[in-house]
Specification:
The protein is α/β, with parallel strands linked by helices. Helix content is 37%, strand content 14%. It is built from eleven helices and eight strands. An eight-stranded parallel β-barrel has the order 1-2-3-4-5-6-7-8, surrounded by five helices. Strand 3, helix 5 and strand 4 form a beta-alpha-beta unit. Helix 2 crosses helix 4, helix 5 crosses helix 6 and helix 6 packs parallel to helix 8. The longest helix has 17 residues. It is elongated. The N terminus is likely disordered.
Length: 277
């Protein structure tokens, strides 16, 4: 069934069942209006911790808090009726122990209405993924470039090249076996992404990976051209709304300074017109 025909939001088991089928479509969202725009067109929406960089001007995702994720999760939930919502667990909210992860995941789901949470990490997070899924928390895993670990990864570099490919395969197998229902592959070589997709039983969601993945995700502000601080190689801009917005703001400023706005149709007379304001 297509996203446009669906009456209710899919569940994690529905996403998992799409393995090898029609490509899964996903975007990030952080606000109600953006969620409303994409609701009929995507299978799931990710409230990503990228919100820290995209909307809050932070230099990385490391300073994003649980409170920020809850606030934006609640906003996105109000804009969705057809797509499933997944919310990122922020840095420091799950790494300490499976018990810490469960407390924060349960809080995210309870306070936002999320259908699942996403966390970063491979083999080292398998125990936590198993702990969560056994207690009713659906988990989307995320390996490859994991932005919360940029200081240990040496920056925003491609992951899984050369001898590192074997570890990436082991990470993919570990999170799938632990119970994750889907797996994000970020900034992974194309051939490795294809191999992982072929060998794991859960859908792979590519972002800078391969068209052969079971689905794709992008940061919506990147693909719309709203976030312009930088552009990753894997981003295709399907619009240039940032440029259009800046041009419109400049036009507005010029109209105000020239006293061309507000014009007669934008102001009110002393007497109310019949049937009007």
């Amino acid at each position: 069934m297509s996203a446009t025909a669906r009456k209710t939001a899919p569940m994690p088991m529905d996403i998992r069942a799409r393995k090898g089928g029609a490509p899964l479509v996903s975007l990030t969202a952080y606000t109600t209006p953006m969620a409303q725009f994409m609701d009929a067109h995507v299978d799931f929406v990710l409230v990503g911790d990228s919100v820290g960089m995209v909307l809050h001007g932070l230099t990385s995702t490391l300073d994003v808090t649980m409170e920020m994720m809850i606030l934006h999760g609640q906003a996105v939930r109000r804009g969705l009726s057809r797509a499933m919502m997944v919310v990122d667990l922020p840095f420091g909210a799950y790494e300490e122990s499976p018990q810490q992860a469960f407390r924060n995941a349960a809080r995210l789901m309870r306070e936002t209405g999320a259908g699942a949470v996403k966390l970063e990490g491979g083999m080292q997070m398998a125990e936590t993924i198993g702990f969560l899924t056994q207690r009713g928390v659906p988990v989307m895993a995320h390996i490859g470039l994991t932005p919360q670990a940029i200081h240990t990864l040496g920056g925003y570099r491609v992951q899984g090249r050369g001898e590192d490919a074997a570890q990436m395969m082991a990470d993919a197998r570990a999170v799938a076996q632990a119970g994750a229902f889907a797996l994000v592959l970020e900034k992974v070589p194309e051939r490795l992404a294809d191999r992982i997709t072929a060998e794991v039983a859960i859908p792979t969601i590519g972002i800078g990976a391969s068209a052969g993945c079971d689905g794709q995700i992008l940061v919506v502000d990147d693909m719309l051209g709203l976030f312009t601080a930088f552009k990753a190689k894997f981003v295709k801009r399907f619009a240039t709304l940032g440029e259009q917005a800046e041009a419109a703001i400049a036009e507005y400023a010029a109209a105000v300074r020239a006293r061309e706005f507000p014009a007669a149709e934008h102001v009110f007379s002393d007497k109310a017109p019949e049937g009007g304001a």
